[in-house]
Write a structure and sequence with these properties.
globular, mainly alpha, about 0% strand, 10 helices
Length: about 260
């Protein structure tokens, strides 16, 4: 039977993901922790929630040909090997559920993500100035920096399930200030996150940490709203929602740490 509280959490998160491309792990993880879900179970289940919810969103966004595949592949080159490394550690018996700092790690990543979301316009302006002042050097560094960004995101997502969307979008805005239009940013960020969450989630699945009932309840809420959010996201600017989300995440992150 579907749990109403979890379905509501899924509906809220699905709508935000569809509209802005961010907030999946960053929003869902604090909610699950506040609802009393164990950190390891929350991470494992949220990763699979992200795979299925964002797959629906990506199918809609890809229909408008907004995904930047060159950027996605560079991110994957860094993020997927890092996630595979964590998967190997989990699959071969790493006691993730006994790491007493796991909740604190989630809170820290959420707060860093929040700060990045709030500062995103300023970071993009700074990057734009650097891009125009020294275009050849900036463009020459983009591929390597994108791969490194993927490594960082792979580590964050595999350990906490947070970062692929919100933190990833901030990084892309900085690395590609001219290339990433709002709609292309959403589509590209979502597409990168799907295989990353899938790879990271495999280790937790094999370790038996995924809660099937929790996952079904979350998806029952998220699937309809992620479709709605994705359709609205084609015509709306989601920046004001990102700011509101950042304020909510600030409170959630601080609550997680206390």
């Amino acid at each position: 039977m579907v749990d109403g509280a979890y379905a509501l959490a899924g509906a809220l998160t699905g709508f935000v993901v569809g509209l802005t491309g961010v907030g999946g792990g960053a929003l869902m993880m604090p909610i699950l922790l506040l609802l009393g879900v164990a950190p390891a179970t929350a991470i494992a289940t949220d990763l699979w929630f992200a795979v299925l919810t964002k797959a629906v969103a990506a199918s809609i966004h890809n229909g408008s040909a907004q995904i930047d595949w060159i950027v996605v592949k560079c991110l994957w080159f860094g993020s997927l090997p890092m996630a595979l490394l964590v998967v190997a550690l989990v699959s071969f018996g790493a006691q993730v559920q006994k790491v007493d700092w796991l909740t604190e790690a989630i809170g820290v990543v959420v707060l860093v993500t929040t700060l990045g979301m709030l500062l995103a316009p300023a970071l993009r302006l700074l990057a734009r100035e650097r891009r125009l002042d020294n275009p050849s050097r900036f463009k020459g560094l983009q591929p390597a920096l994108t791969v490194f960004a993927g490594l960082v995101l792979g580590l964050c997502v595999a350990l906490t399930s947070v970062g692929a969307g919100a933190l990833g979008s901030v990084i892309l805005l900085y690395l590609y200030p001219l290339r990433m239009t709002p709609h292309r940013l959403v589509a590209t960020d979502i597409m990168h996150a799907i295989p990353l969450a899938l790879v990271a989630g495999l280790g937790y699945l094999f370790a038996g940490m995924v809660d099937g009932h929790l996952l079904i309840s979350l998806l029952a809420g998220s699937i309809p709203t992620v479709v709605l959010g994705s359709l609205l996201g084609r015509s709306l600017n989601g920046r004001w929602i990102q700011v509101l989300l950042a304020v909510v995440l600030l409170g959630a992150g601080l609550k997680t740490l206390t």
